Amino acid sequence: MASASITFLGTGTSQGVPVVGCDCAVCASTDSHDKRLRTSALVQMGGVHLLIDAGPDLRQQMLVNGTRHLDAVLLTHEHMDHVGGIDDLRAFNYRQQRAMDIHANAATLAAVRRTFHYAFAEERYPGVPELRLHTIEGPFSIGDVPVEPFEVMHGNLPVLGFRIGGLAYITDAKELSEQLVERLSGVDTLVLNALRRSEHPTHLNLQQALSIVARIGPRRAYFTHISHLLGAHEPVSRDLPAHVALAHDGLRVDFPA
């Protein structure tokens, strides 16, 4: 069976870890697993390179990962920790000599147009990013890679998750419908947000994320969008089921295409 991969470029919450000005044990940790950039991932399948979310750490993530080519960007939603680095996509415009394709729902694309208005102006300053926006309204393909979008709720905000081959990627969710749980049942590799241990109004906490993993029943699951309030990587990891792990920046995982 052909394989694909996901590389976790960032696994932190909106403030990243360490948090500016915080001296808690997690933020002061010297373990590289506790250094978390804002959440983003690179999916590679059959020569196609897809970036999921383009947050404010995008430039650093591309340099650290040595990324030299992107075919398209998939955006989960409009919050700045997921779209704030879009301006840095212009490096790929220069290298690839084409506009970057960005796929998102209509509300997210409207936010991109507002935030990066200069990229869509009638008279544009030389060097602004060249972006080609595509509204996600159902399943679509990028090259030979089929992408199946689905909706989860981030408080009152609809957020997109993506199924790509044997991977299901979900971030910033608070609620998954029973219908979606059934639809994802038995997926090979599940990526899911797990913000912290205590209840949060718009994000899954650790116990809620574990409950969803148990309901979906993937072969393995990785948690992302992690706050310093969850705890340090090593002790939290010890308490997780064998098929569940905390993702960390730079982790690459293969999954069946």
Strand content: 25-35%
Helical percentage: 10-25%
Major sheet summary line: 7 strands, mixed
Distance between the termini: 7 Å
Task: Enter the CATH topology name.
Answer: Metallo-beta-lactamase, Chain A
Class by SSE composition: alpha/beta
Q: Name the CATH superfamily classification.
A: Ribonuclease Z/Hydroxyacylglutathione hydrolase-like
Shape: globular
Query: Based on the structure given, which CATH architecture is correct?
Result: 4-Layer Sandwich
Q: Please, what is the average pLDDT?
A: 97
Which parts are unreliable, with pLDDT below 50 for 5 consecutive residues or more? none
Q: In a few lines, what is going on in this structure?
A:
With 257 residues, this protein is an alpha/beta fold.
Structural features, described:
The chain has 257 residues and is α/β, with parallel strands linked by helices. The chain has one domain (3-139, 146-249): 4-Layer Sandwich (Metallo-beta-lactamase, Chain A), CATH 3.60.15.10. The chain has 7 helices and 14 strands. The strands form 2 sheets. It has a 7-stranded mixed sheet. The radius of gyration is 18 Å and the shape is globular. The termini are close together.
